[in-house]
Amino acid sequence: SVDMQTATQSQAVGFASPLQNPGMVSMMPTSAANNQTFGEVNQLGGVFVNGRPLPNALRLRIIELAQLGIRPCDISRQLRVSHGCVSKILARYNETGSILPGAIGGSKPRVTTPGVVNAIKDYKVRDPGIFAWEIRDRLLSDAICDKYNVPSVSSISRILRNKIGNVLHPNNPLNPNYVPISSIENSTPPQTPSMRPAMYNSPIYNHYMVPPGKPNMPNAPPQLRNSPVACHPFYSHSVTEILGFPRFDQPGIQGTVSNHPMTTDTLTVAPHNGGGYHHQLVPVSVPSVIPKLEEWNNMTAYGVPPPTQVTTVHLNGVEKSSPLSRDVTSLQQSPSSEENRASHPPTCLYASAPTNTAYVTSSAANQYPQPYIPTYAQPGWHQMNGMDATGNPLRPTHHAQNGGLQHGYHKTAVTTSQQG
DNA sequence: TTCGTTACGGTTGAG
DNA sequence: TGCTCAACCGTAACG
Q1: DSSP string, A126-187
Q2: Per CA to C1' distance, which residue is closest to C13?
Q3: Nearest residue to C6 (CA, C1')?
Q4: What DSSP line would sit under A9-33, residue for residue?
C-alpha cells in the first residue's frame, strides 16, 4: 500500500480519486530531486500521459462501445476519457477505419529532392528568364511532381538562389548575356595564374573547371571530367553529391540501390493511419519493436491476465454483440501489431463510472465495476524511480536524456495498489 | 445535456 | 550529441 498524500501534493503511487476530490485534477508536478514522475488524472478520473496516445486497447474499446450503440458521452464517462478525445478517435475511425493514433514526430519528407532540383536546373538552363511559378507549373505538367509534393514558389526561388547561383552574374553560364570563355580564350590553356583570363582567378574557378563546351578538361581528375562540377562552376552540386549516393531513379544504376540503407528491402513503412505522410520506417527484419513504455504495455508479462476482448454489452437491458470482434482478433494476431498487442492494458484500468447504464459482461468486463485503480498503481507497475525490479537502471525518457523532466511509467515487478 | 471545435501544454523523431 | 521543428497527443473549455 502507499501512503496517501494531500490532493495538491505530488504523489508517487496511487492517490485519492479526483472524483472524491474535484479540486485535484493535475498530477503532473515532477520533482527532479526525488526523481519521481507522475501521470495525470483527468476530470473523469481517467489516467493519461500528456502528449502520448491512449493505449490501443482503450482506443479499441471506444470503437467497440460506439459500434454497440453507446453514445460518445457515455463512452467518455465509462472509460474516463474526455469526450473530445472520444469524439476525435471515433471521427478518425469513421474517416480512416483505423483505431491507431497518427504518426508522431519525425520530419516531413523533403519535396526538393535531388531529382526535383535537377529538373529545376534544367528548366533554368533552357530558359534563364523563367519564373519560379513557371517552373512550378512545369514540374507539375512534366509529372516530375504532383500536387502533393511540388515545391512552393519560394522553395523554387531558394533553390535557384542557393543551388544555381545568380543568373545575372556576367560569368554565370545561365546568364543570357554570358560570353563563353571559348570566345575569349583560345584553345591553349593558361599556364600560370597571371596568364589566365581574369575570371579564372576568381575564387569560384579553379584549374579543374572549364566552361561549357569544353567538357573534357585534361588536367582534371578522371572522376570530374565531363561532370557538371567541372563543367559548370555555378553547379555547386552534382546529383550524386546532393544524394550522397548514386541515383536510383535512373535505369542502369539500379544495382546500387540496395547498397544504401534507405533503399534496402529491410525497410518498410509502418502502418499509418489518418492521412498525412508516411515517415516511420521500421526495419522488418527486427523481430520485435521495443514497445513504448508510455503505452503502459506488457501487463501480462507480470502475471496480470491478458485483457479479454469485450464481445457483448448490456445496454438498457439489451445484450449486444460487438461487431468489432473480428477486428480485435485481427489486431491481436497481426504480425505487425506486436506493439498493439503489447500495449493492451487490463480492462480494469478504467473502471466504470457508477452511473453508467451500459456495462460490459465479458470476463474482462467483469472487472469493470472494480474500484478505480490508476495504471501505475496496479500490480506490476510502479513509478519510475531510476531502477527496475532487477536493479537495472531504467531507460531514461527523452527529456530525462536531455536533462529535463522525466515522464512515463516503467514496468517493474513492484506491486502497489491504491483504491480510490 | 451533448458534441464539435480549438487552445494549450506536452511528446516524438527526422533532419 | 543536442537542437529545431512540425507532426502528433489528450484535456479542458467554449459555444
Answers
A1: H-TT--HHHHHHHHHHTTSS-TTTPPPHHHHHHHIIIII--TTSTT-TTSTT---HHHHS-S
A2: A84
A3: A107
A4: S--SS----TTT-TT-------BTT
Look up residue A96 and give its three cell numbers. Answer: 480512416
Does A114-168 match A44-96 at the fold level?
yes
Strand C, nucleotides covered by protein (CB < 7 Å): 2-3, 5-13
Q: What integer pLDDT is reported at residue A257 of this predicted model?
A: 26
User: Which carries the bigger pLDDT value, residue A215 or residue A74?
Assistant: A74
What whole-number distance in Å separates Cα of residue A279 and Cα of residue A272? 9
Greater model confidence, A101 or A365: A101
Q: How far is the CA of A402 from the C1' of C2 (A)?
A: 8
Report yes or no: A14 and A382 within 8 Å, Cβ to Cβ.
no
- Summarize the confidence of residues A116-132 as an average pLDDT: 82
Angle at A332 between CA A326 and CA A334, to 5 degrees: 95
Q: What is A114-168's CATH topology?
A: Arc Repressor Mutant, subunit A (1.10.10)
Whole-angstrom CA distances from A177 to A150, A196, A401 are 30, 21, 57
Structure letter (DSSP) for residue A387 = B
**Pairing between β-strand A267-269 and β-strand A47-48 as defined by DSSP bridges:** unpaired
**Helix, strand, coil shares of chain A as percentages rounded to 5?**
35, 5, 60
**pLDDT 10s digits, A210-260:** 223 323 333 333 332 333 332 232 222 222 222 233 222 332 222 222 222
Q: Measured in angstroms, what separates residue A287's CA from nucleotide B1's C1'? A: 49
Give bridge partners of residue A269 from the DSSP assignment: A281
- Torsion from C-alpha of A256, A259, A260, A266, nearest 10 degrees: 120
Q: Give the DSSP per-residue string, A67-91.
A: HTT--HHHHHHHHT--HHHHHHHHH
Residues A88 and A112 sit within 8 Å (Cβ to Cβ) = no
What's the average model confidence in pLDDT over A387-408? Answer: 30
State the amino acid at position A238 in one-letter form: S
First-to-final CA distance of chain A: 12
A44-96 to CATH, choices 3.80.10.10, 3.40.50.2300, 1.10.285.10, 1.10.10.10: 1.10.10.10
Q: What count of other Cβ atoms lies within 10 Å of the Cβ of residue A27?
A: 20
